[in-house]
Amino acid sequence: MDLGMKIKNLRTVLMLTQEELANRCELTKSYISQLENNKTSPSLETLTQMLKVLGTNLSDFFYEKKGEKIVFNNEEQYEAEFNGYDITWLVPTSQIQSMEPIIVNLKPNCKTIEDMPHDGEEFGFVLKGEIIIVYGDIQEKVKQYETFYIKSNKSHYIKNTNQDSKIIWVSCPPNF
Q1: What is the pLDDT of residues 89-109, one digit of tens each?
Q2: Computed from CA positions of residues 44, 47, 51, 56, in that sequence, does the dihedral angle turn out positive or negative?
Q3: Which of 4, 41, 42, 99 is such that its CA lies 20 to 30 A from the CA of 139?
Q4: Domains (ranges, CATH) in the chain?
């Protein structure tokens, strides 16, 4: 971490000169210049005071956000088999995110476990085959390349007709 550069960036965002920052912190302009050029290091007390003047604190100042992971490969996916179907979790961190995308492979004449009512919404896209979405008392056929979208406030599950089916299913919030 380049301490001097971070301080300089904060100062310039606030449109303060070195002299203005020095005056507000009861330091000298020369000291601020040396600090920004990494020629000296501040005491913890001086740094804390300076960061307060710059509108931040030690915790935020030293926090370095790691690059957010946005691409996941198939080696990071997790698979589990159930009676008559299997699920592939497409994003390994989806349980702690806002939504959970999965792929469901459903064998002929099988169904998923019935999901009881809960908060949220769910979306599905049939990649292969044909399914029936059972939503409360409603049963709707969903063909290949068709979608379904439901609120999760009724019991629901999917069942297969007579061929292998593959569905992308997204639950928000995570539920699987």
Answers
A1: 998 877 667 889 999 999 999
A2: negative
A3: 99
A4: 3-62 (1.10.260.40), 74-172 (2.60.120.10)
